[in-house]
Design brief:
Belongs to the TfdA dioxygenase family. InterPro entries: AtsK-like, TauD-like_sf, TauD/TfdA-like. This is Taurine dioxygenase. This protein has five helices and 18 strands. By secondary structure, it is an alpha+beta fold. It has one domain: Double-stranded beta-helix. Strands 1, 2, 3, 4, 5, 6, 7, 8, 16 and 18 form a ten-stranded mixed β-sheet that branches. It has a three-stranded antiparallel β-sheet with strand order 15-9-17. The longest helix has 15 residues, at 207-221. The termini are far apart. The relative contact order is 0.21. Mean pLDDT is 88; it is low at 1-15 and 283-290. The protein binds 2-oxoglutaric acid. 2-oxoglutaric acid (AKG) is lined by residues 98, 106, 112, 123, 125, 137, 247, 249, 259, 261.
């Protein structure tokens, strides 16, 4: 399908035509006909619109994209931030380098940097080197995850929060509390906002309740009918909405794989219901210690 840019925007030849092809029924489109190294205001607006609609966009053939261009692209969508601990590209601290031979295999479902008070709104990943086979990445649509829960279960989740923790002993510790169901600030839609890699517990529940609810939400939100799976070619760029998706890099290869990522700074996730600010768990139901993710030490 070839779609023109936003109605009334620049004529063909100036802003050009975008060729858009769905990757799955749940989310994700491949977009061709644009050079991300230098985009116009109209193209930036159209990309944002497409991201809000499809949640993850793939741009193959971006061989020209330099680290400088990558940062400039991200700045079209907001401020960019330096990752708290991942390796950085020399002279471009905003560009995180993810290399398989240095442990850069994000092979558990996660939302980027959800342990921060203001997790990124969007992430932009540039695949530099791909293994000959394998190394795909999957995304899951968290609007669908929320909308397919039963109404009583959704009601139970409203107003609850979850704690997201990063704990690397002797390196860094960060944590943040966010709504379990967040309201997207641009679309107004609700999505599930818990993730296996970072979410430790729901502080308003007992340990057993929290473990059981989170286990169910992890399994529910990771199910294949909410996914797209992308087979990378070198110099494909992905842009995703980090507020309504989670993702996982499949660890099924031995060879070298490298990618570079820039994230766009976010706002504080919000919900449209009270967050039980006065709630105090009784001492004997206080959450401690947790079994889900116990291997991480939280
Ligand atoms: O390497 C990938 O495909 C995904 C990397 C990732 O999980 C991330 O950038 O957060």
């Amino acid at each position: 399908m070839t779609q023109s840019l936003a109605p009334g925007s620049a004529p063909e030849g100036v802003a050009g035509q975008l060729d858009i092809c769905p990757v799955s029924g749940a989310l994700g489109v491949e977009v061709r006909g644009i050079d991300l190294n230098e985009i116009t205001d109209e193209q930036a607006a159209r990309i944002r619109e497409l991201m809000l609609e499809h949640l993850v966009l793939f741009f193959p053939g971006q061989d020209n994209l330099t680290p400088k261009g990558h940062v400039a692209l991200a700045k079209r969508f907001g401020d960019v931030e330096v990752h708290p601990f991942l390796p950085r590209v020399k002279e471009h601290p905003e560009v995180t380098r993810i290399e398989s031979d240095k442990g850069g295999k994000a092979d558990e479902w996660h939302i980027d940097v959800s342990f921060a008070p203001n997790p990124p709104v969007a992430s932009i990943l540039h695949l530099i080197t791909c293994p000959p086979s394998g190394g795909d990445t999957m995304w899951s649509n968290q609007y669908l995850a929320y909308e397919t829960l039963s109404e009583p279960f959704r009601e139970m989740l409203e107003g609850l929060t979850a704690v997201h923790v990063l704990k690397l002993p002797h390196v860094i510790e960060m944590s943040a509390e966010h709504p379990v169901v967040r309201v997207h600030p641009e679309t107004g839609r609700k999505s599930l906002y818990v993730t296996r890699m970072w979410t430790s517990h729901i502080p308003q529940l007992t340990r057993h309740e929290s473990d059981a609810v989170l286990q169910h939400l992890f399994e529910h939100s990771e199910q294949p009918s909410f996914h797209c799976r992308y087979r990378w070619e070198p110099h494909t760029v992905a842009i995703w909405d980090n507020r309504a998706t989670q993702h996982v890099a499949i660890n099924d290869y031995q060879e070298y794989r490298a990618a570079q990522r820039v994230v766009v700074v976010g706002d504080k996730p919000s919900s449209d219901t009270p967050r039980r600010p006065d709630y105090k768990p009784k001492a004997d139901e206080r959450y401690y210690p947790r079994r889900i993710n116990a291997h991480r030490g939280y």
